[in-house]
Amino acid sequence: MPEQRTALVTGANRGLGQAVAAELARRGLRVVPTSRQPGEAGVSQVLDVTDAASVRSAGEQVGEVDVLICNAGVLLDPGNDPLSVPLDLVERSLAVNLLGGWRVAQTFLPGMIARGWGRVVFVSSDAGSYDRGLFTGAPGYSVSKAALNGLTMMLASHTKGSGVLVNAVNPGPTRTRMMPMAERSVEESANDIVHAATLPDDGPSGILLENGQPAPW
């Protein structure tokens, strides 16, 4: 990159978000790791993606952001099915996984468009894949990620030709608090996300990436 860019990472207090923030910093970006709780180790900015005032305040305090990693997410309903899952869990899943990323994008993406350069990455999941079939064992989570994929495509279409690239990444099962038994390390998955965050100007927009390669929605 010809100049130092500023990257903001949501949910960067642990796990995948923390690893993404570390890798972006290693590659020379100025990184703003965020978390909804103040005082988290390694976090420089409070940002609760479900709270409009918190997101607005973060936007005012951080200023210009060139790279936005929407990583904050929850898995609240494993072991449920679509006909018995408590709908309050579905609502909370959508509030964080879909509306949280949407809210943050509304705050930071217009500035990218105005400056003519930006990268937005939504952390998705194959649980929300139409190609593979939405995972019914965590229905709220799966629907929220399918909707996030739709948001990715819509924002990419809206920003076409602006210099802003908007993509989603499926990191696959990754060893975090959400999936402690997964084989893939957070460092491996973080590299995939950082790849999408540092695409060249002629890179793709509006696609799902897995292992650095385009994948079907």
Describe this structure in words.
With about 220 residues, this protein is an alpha/beta fold. The chain contains six helices and eight strands, in the order βαββαβααβαβαββ. It has helices at about 15-25, 50-60, 85-95, 100-115, 140-160, 185-195, and strands spanning about 5-10, 30-35, 45, 65-70, 120-125, 165-170, 210, 215. The chain has an eight-stranded mixed sheet, with helices on both faces. The chain is globular. The mean pLDDT is about 95.
Spans of at least 5 consecutive residues with low confidence: none
Give the DSSP E fraction (strand runs of 2 or more residues): 15-25%
Largest sheet: 8 strands, mixed
How many beta-strand segments? Answer: 8
- For the termini, the CA-CA separation is 29 Å
Q: Which percent bin holds the helix content?
A: 25-40%
Overall geometry:
globular
- Report the structural category: alpha/beta
Question: In angstroms, what is the radius of gyration?
Answer: 16 Å
Q: What's the overall average pLDDT, rounded?
A: 94
Q: Going across the major beta sheet, what is the strand order? A: 3-2-1-4-5-6-7-8
Keywords:
8 strands; alpha/beta; 16% strand; 38% helix; single chain; 6 helices; 217 residues
What's the helix and strand layout?
Elements: E1 6-9, H1 15-26, E2 30-35, E3 45-46, H2 52-62, E4 67-70, H3 87-97, H4 99-115, E5 118-123, H5 139-158, E6 164-169, H6 186-197, E7 208-210, E8 213-215
Parallel strand pairs: 1-2, 1-4, 2-3, 4-5, 5-6, 6-7
Antiparallel strand pairs: 7-8
Helix pairs in contact: 1-6, 2-4, 3-5
